[in-house]
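Annex B.
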Amino acid sequence: MRALCLNVSLFTATLPKNYTPLIHSYCNCSSPSFPGDNGRFRLRVTTTRRRNSKSEIFLGDEEEVEAGENEKFSSIAEETSRAMRMRRSKGVVDTEEEDDSSMLLSLSVKPDRNMALLDDYEMEELDFVPENPNHRSGYVAVLGKPNVGKSTLSNQMVGQKLSIVTDKPQTTRHRVLGICSGPDHQTHEPCLGVPMQMILYDTPGVIEKKMHKLDTMMMKNVRSAAVNADCVLVVVDACKVPAKIDEVLEEGVGDLKYKVPTLLVLNKKDLIKPGEIAKRLEWYEKFTDVDEVIPVSAKYGHGVEDVKDWILSKLPLGPAYYPKDIASEHPERFFVAEIVREKIFLQYRNEVPYACQVNVVSYKTRPNAKDFIQVEVIVERNTQKIILIGKEGKALKLLATAARLDIEDFLQKKVFLEVEVKVKENWRQDEGLLKDYGYGGHIQTL
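GTP-binding protein Era: predicted structure tokens.
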């Protein structure tokens, strides 16, 4: 089991190795330490390069790869029927049960909170204890236009960097599920501690003009995120002139037959004067159809506890949806791909980052060596591939090294990272490819 997976019960141990959810011992921290915040892109490791006629591949950390080494990687054990039942209760579906590579995790299906699905042995292995009757849990959709700070706010609330963050708009493409749990959420009211679990859906920025099929599918994911929501956060940029949020509400919750509690989060208050904040608060309270407006600085965590208090007041009573020691249901390979994509956004300019799709082709655990991770970067044109690789492969080497360092910080272990660049013309318009890449509401767990 991975070094990342501390105190793992049967609930995670019986799942495929690459599906093990991210373990986070304490999610309710107000000042999280994000992986890679110190910007340490150490280029100390010797990285070998090999070329072929189709693509450029960089192998990190090791100067040689012995022939047939991949065959020595540990294989995934055959799943037990109990694990299959538990995965189904969590929304994991198998299109072909005999083919593990076809296993998909639904991003739309709520897991079943009915403990009757588990037998006595499973409850014992899960360290199950009766829930506090005052326990609250529910789903929160985080909506807003591009580059308003949705991902930064979500990361602060979870207490850990799950969503990638850059200064470029439309960085987030998937609904990123973050779980904030606490045996006691200390509100601002004295002696009032409420056990809770908030499940946050960080969504792509709402865009009006959809240029590709990818944009259309991303907006569909925004709408479906609100279907499960018990409340909605609409994030706006305090630095910009106040404007109505009708477009965001229509795109996010317009199809719902009932009105869901909605909070407007006025982000980036640290960048404007206090007097201006008061004016913007007054405008949004007067001209928008929301229940409350709270100013915050997601970057520094100011006001985040006020947002948590509001959410807690809207969540229904009920047991937790997920074990309290995980911060996301997404598999590790999802976050590995996102880290690589973040580095692409940070390193390259103009259209190149938006034309890139990152897939983890292979993720193999090796008990006596570094884990092996093979990643492919898909671009639409050969000119983009040339830019990604750079002169003599230097740009791709820099990308691979920066990504590897953050992946190691995230996984808390050393890895061997291989990055390959491929061209697939107009992949952003290919609905079949987009579904394979996880934009259809399901992601691969293996």
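Residues 394-411 form the longest helix (18 residues). Residues 254 and 291 are 16 Å apart (CA to CA). Further annotation is deferred to the next reporting cycle.
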